[in-house]
Amino acid sequence: MSERFPIVTWTGEPVICADCPHQDRLRGGTCMPGDACVHDGYAKRIDRFFRQNRDLAAGYLRHPFFEVRAIAARLADPLHLPPLVHDLDGTVRRAAADRLPECHLAYLQHDPDREVRIRVAHRLAPERLHAMAHDPDYYVRLVVARRIRPDHLRAMILDPEREVRRAVAGRIGVDLLPLLAADADGDVRAEAVQRLPADALGPYRDDADWRVRYEVARRAPRQHVFELVNDPDHMVQEKALARLYDNAEVPGP
What is d(CA 139, CA 121) in angstroms, rounded to the nearest whole number? Predict the structure, then answer.
């Protein structure tokens, strides 16, 4: 390991233990050159140092080397992390976003780093996510669509990304499902019609997507199923025939 990762500081200088303020840790065996050292330029050695000396992590949150700050942020008491929302390095802000008390996460909702915003979207309380519903990154919006309160999903019905709209269709109130059942994308429509009441499925028997027509054949009142026995898709045909002639009224896959 030492040959591949020289024992040098993050500035390329030799690591000199005599200059270190943690002589007691060296004597106690919780740090060692080439294995666990806060001054080393190799991240794994820095990580080992803090895992063996966790009580020192908070004191390194302002260190000039971003790796030291980021690793310290993963192990320091979360109460010391709020100042890191203004850190210049995205790696540090990501580490902070994973562990910050929730009351401080709002400061990172519009962070320039998408990975930071993804972490925030995963951690913020559902009722506080509405400000992220129009995030420029589709994956952030997808996380929001999966977690935000259902009564706040209306703002995401016209999202430009189909996976986001599909997530919306899986959770939005039934009264708004017809808007998504008319979506231009078949995946979204198929998701929406699965949640529509059976007596509302009739208008979708001519849908271009076979999955939508299959759902009509599977659950719609029988009067809407007759024309589906001649459907171009054999699975839709079979389900329609089963409903009409085999009395298979129990919905199945």
Answer: 10
How many Cβ atoms are within 10 Å of 157's Cβ, its own excluded? 16
Q: Where are the alpha helices (DSSP H) in the chain?
A: 23-28, 43-52, 66-75, 90-99, 114-123, 138-147, 162-169, 177-181, 186-193, 210-219, 234-245
Q: What does the DSSP assignment read for 134-181?
A: T-SSHHHHHHHHHHS-GGGGGGGTT-SSHHHHHHHHTTS-GGGHHHHH
Nearest partner of 59 among 41, 74, 76, 40, judged by Cα:
76
pLDDT, one tens digit per residue, over 1-54 is 444 778 899 999 999 999 899 999 999 999 998 999 999 999 999 999 999 999
* Full-model pTM: 0.88
Q: CA-to-CA distance for 149 and 158, rounded, in angstroms? A: 17
Task: Count CA atoms closer than 13 A to 217's CA, side-chain side.
Answer: 29
